[in-house]
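> run fold Replication restart protein PriA
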Amino acid sequence: MNVAEVIVDVSSKNIDRPFDYKIPDHLKGMIEVGMRVIVPFGPRKLQGFVTGLKESSELNGGSMKEVEKLLDLTPVLTEELMQLSSWLSDKTLSFKITALQAMLPAALKAKYEKELKVVDEEALTPDIKQLFRNQKSLLYSDITDESILSSLQKFVRKGSIDVTYKVAQKTNKKMIRMIEAGADKEELARHADALTKQASKQLTVLTYFIGGGAKISAAELCKKTDSSSATLKTLLKKGLLTESFEEVYRDPYQDRMFKKTEPLSLTEEQQAAFEPIKQAVADHVHHVFLLHGVTGSGKTEIYLQSIEKVLAKGQEAIVLVPEISLTPQMVNRFKGRFGSQVAVMHSGLSTGEKYDEWRKIQRKEVRLVVGARSAIFAPFENLGMIIIDEEHESSYKQEEMPRYHAKDVAIRRAEHHSCPVVLGSATPTLESFARAKKGVYELLPLKHRVNRQLMPDVSLVDMREELRNGNRSMFSRELMEQLEEKLAKKEQAVLFLNKRGYSSFVMCRDCGYVPQCPHCDISMTYHRYGQRLKCHYCGHEEPVPGTCPECGSEHIRFFGTGTQRVEEELTKVLPQARVIRMDVDTTSRKGAHEKLLSAFGEGKADILLGTQMIAKGLDFPNVTLVGVLSADTTLHIPDFRAAEKTFQLLTQVSGRAGRHEKPGTVVIQTYTPSHYSIQLTKTHDYETFFQQEMAHRRAQSYPPYYYVALVTVSHEEAAKAAVTAEKITNYLRAGCGPDTKILGPAASPIARIKDRYRYQCVIKYRQENELQIQLKKILEHYKRDIAQKHVMISIDMNPYMLM
Ligand code: ADP
Ligand code: ZN
Ligand code: ZN
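> ok
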């Protein structure tokens, strides 16, 4: 093959296609689809993906540029993933390059550096020569002295210095130095005898190898023999030792021991759910199962035993778990059963660690990956099963390009591999449950907890009533009584604060002023560290003001609707209680999350107080009380899924209580006790919730009756954003059939981000193709404006945040 088709690393509509490059002789036969290359593109050198190979190009040889460099010796993307990327970019209306990159770990993404090269040294002034320090080239990012930039620019204009773009390859692999004997034992012994008394360290090192010591890392050898690297150096010089470098994996879990667990004998109910999955694995067929099981019904054990069947067939499996429930407890359950066959991928890992886990998959060293959303792209080639735990979790949706949902990708991959998908949840999404009811998915119910433990007793407390009775505290009398009782019995409690978004803000107690980001129309988030305010959208930062800019009052301070204030109040009313608080503040440091949880598990505290991050996955036998301080917060978000999210969250949290022998109690405090999403938590009645919520969705043409898409238009000028949104809305109204309902345009709930005004249009549709065609035409029409960043148009075919 003489020509490679390459998709280059530029996110632009004009460039969103493969370009032809000539394959130079020395790379002929080496380049394969799925490899990364470096190619010239205009004045730049860019990274790109080879998407096709052919004998010749319509471009005549003269104008066709050559592939400059080959970055991979084996493809980083399999053929299946290459195909998946085209499907993904099509489905989500994102650039091909963005879809390709979404499938790779960050360490493999291109990074560019501006490089300055001396063309005419004679012309340069001494200070510039000094800057280059006799080198021919220099990285722009290495220049620390800003004052030199303007004279530098003059030389660049004159052509004495050239600017090029260089693709920086990140150092990916971690290598360690290994030492072994460089001569046979007799020779080592001869040298050992000849050593002087002062050289006792050399003697111990030699003795190690004379005694048959194996190849060992330099660091370990030094430790073992109490010697230094200088000692090793001397021996290396003499040729008595040799060194080599070996790749090692940064294994974030290497220090932990995993106790091997054996499969449990399944309950009758579990067995009934397991059989069809087992059958699908054996028959090698694609099928989607919805495992609908109450919390504690033993879903995870079913996953484990299904995976066992898959691995026994020599196949591979992917398990997706929401980021926040990817706790050590969860990881232990998989590592405990499958040991070193498991790779773990989540955002808490460093770029290097993520890359290493990915390489284990690529090299076929593991056959199971447990990970958050992006693990769905694990480069397995013989997939036997995909499991999505807590399938209702909104974190499976990526909120940036490509805006994909991991469930759609999972089903697509499973179709390709003819293997089953298992979706598990106590509170499935309405979409999934409706599909199961229609027989598109197969419903596998688990109605009881393992060993028939009862579901916890849930009581709803009307907080308006509390206030009428003179209780101004954030704890109702019932919750207080329960807390005291559990403390007395030496049992544990979990207190859940339903926080929506970022409620740690600063407020003036006198006039109610809350500092807003000057660019984004949202409240700034308070960061205790350094007493600063930060904007979560644009990164703007400023110190906390000493006095209120509105009224001059000094009573402007952190408003703890947050966990911190609850903790303060808790220590006042229950001074004897030991409290562990888990929120963004206490868990920001690496490993902190895990430490706090294990401390709680070991009984070092009576109460675990936290936000959403404690709602899932926790399984502590001694927890017999769960308190929800404010059930309503999620109910009032401007989103058609608000009721569904509330029901899911409350059910999840309630599930943390009484999972083992001791019975559990749940106290839910609310200002809207009559709402069905809150009422039905009391009876754990998913079915009834489903029926009621479906009626609402039908009446308002929301999913699962209609799909929803969101188009957001932004511009630096509010009027331009509004006008463009208006035009787009009209265009869609004219172009789409009567089955498509177009709402808006309207200002987005967050009306401005990064100084750009935002308008949105919500589309309810049934025909995906028809809408896609219209939306593609719109993107094509505005492509020049978009390229120049005058107007930005973002399209989400299945939004989970209507902001
Ligand atoms: P879920 O994932 O549905 O919330 P889990 O799989 O976490 O439920 O199971 C809850 C508890 O029951 C766990 O401690 C688990 O070890 C235990 N368990 C699950 N299946 C069985 C079984 N067949 N026999 C005994 N214990 C089981
Ligand atoms: Zn004020
Ligand atoms: Zn901002």
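The mean pLDDT is 87.
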